[in-house]
Amino acid sequence: MVKRKSLQGDYCPSARSLDVIGDWWSLLIVRDAFDGLTRFGEFQKNLGIAKNILSDRLRTLTERGILKVVASSDGGAHQEYHLTAMGRDLFPVMVALRQWGEQYLFKPGEKHSKLVERKTGQAIRLEVRTEDGRSISPEESVILKVPHSP
After folding, report:
1. 123 and 113 in contact (C-beta within 8 Å)?
2. Nearest to 27 by CA among 18, 40, 38, 16
3. Domains located in the chain, CATH noted
4. How is residue 48 annotated by DSSP?
């Protein structure tokens, strides 16, 4: 098996982000953490993931600052995994993935889960905007790349 190349030192913010959360199990664990799951057994049962893979992903997410390990809220011997501020800041990423999936991966009228505001029940939408609040399209943006040193 080929060892995965680390992107930690890459000039691209997308590449560095994917180095931390770039596999589907990690993103599904983060999704479940947003849904309120905190315990190893809850993640394992909900995802149907092998225990060794779950252990590895939880360890990586914890080491990278996405999750933190805390004592059980009920005073039991179990530990819990909670999103850190860094992990909570993945919310727009998760909303963007959800919106993309809703638009392209479901047939019209096909049932799927929905993300809504807890208080009002209104659907949540994410838009890309400039610093001054204007909506912007991909064609109106450009990435200013860092030149590579020889």
Report:
1. no
2. 18
3. 13-140 (1.10.10.10)
4. T
Token pair for 89: 């800041």
For residue range 28-42, list pLDDT tens digits in order.
999 999 999 999 999
Q: Apex CA 24: angle with CA 19 and CA 27, to 5°? A: 75
> What radius of gyration, in Å, describes the C-alpha atoms of the chain?
18
Rounded to two decimals, the pTM is: 0.86
- Cα separation, 72 vs 105, in Å, equals 38
Instruction: Tell me which residue has tokens 């983060």.
Output: 30
d(CA 122, CA 114): 10
Residue whose C-alpha is closest to residue 115's, from 126, 124, 106: 124
Residue 15, token pair as written in the block = 């590449």
